[in-house]
């Protein structure tokens, strides 16, 4: 029996996923969670074989949850289930330790098959997204540049970002300028849009 944790912030979607998976032969939903911290706590409590994680979880996103589970509960394999078909997010999820990445347009059969594949030690990735990811190339941003762009996207100015990251204002401006240049963007707003579209932030 494959024990599964379902982490999804939308109640109706979470209940539907749990019902679909519970109805599959050899799969049992051992726990559910509505946010990132609860998903981590539930995984540590129930010890599932597979954690099905939405990326946009409140409190701690699904990619961060996957990274922490890799460290704290390596026997639990993570399958990202999301509406976000951004190649950069796929890369970030796999780098964080996720074993699968499926879009919410998948059929119940495809979801169950992905859970079984991941539980057996394999990798399950939406084939169209995998192809787009290979065409995209590597993320040109450093971790700090991505963080500065992420904070800029939320509306923070250079001084706020500097305070948040314990950096000098000049350093923040240099990182913004570097990110804009690497993404061949015209402005900071354009750089944020490019980075978000590709899933790099």
Global structural class? alpha/beta
Order of the strands making up the biggest sheet:
2-1-3-4-5-6
Question: The biggest beta sheet, please?
Answer: 6 strands, parallel
Q: What fraction of residues sit in β-strands?
A: 5-15%
Helical stretch count?
10
Mean pLDDT score: 90
Through-space gap between termini: 37 Å
Number of DSSP-assigned strands? 6
Order of helices and strands: EHEHEHEHEHEHHHHH
Radius of gyration: 18 Å
Q: How much helicity do the residues have?
A: 40-55%
What's the overall geometry? elongated
The low-pLDDT segments are none
What does this structure look like?
Helix content is 55%, strand content 14%. Strands 2-1-3-4-5-6 form a 6-stranded parallel β-sheet, sandwiched between helices. The mean pLDDT is 90. The protein has helices at residues 11-22, 36-46, 62-72, 87-96, 108-119, 127-136, 143-153, 158-165, 169-182, 188-198; strands at 2-7, 27-33, 50-53, 77-82, 100-103, 124-125. Helix 2 (36-46) packs parallel to helix 3 (62-72), helix 7 (143-153) crosses helix 9 and helix 9 crosses helix 10 (188-198). 41% of the residues are buried.
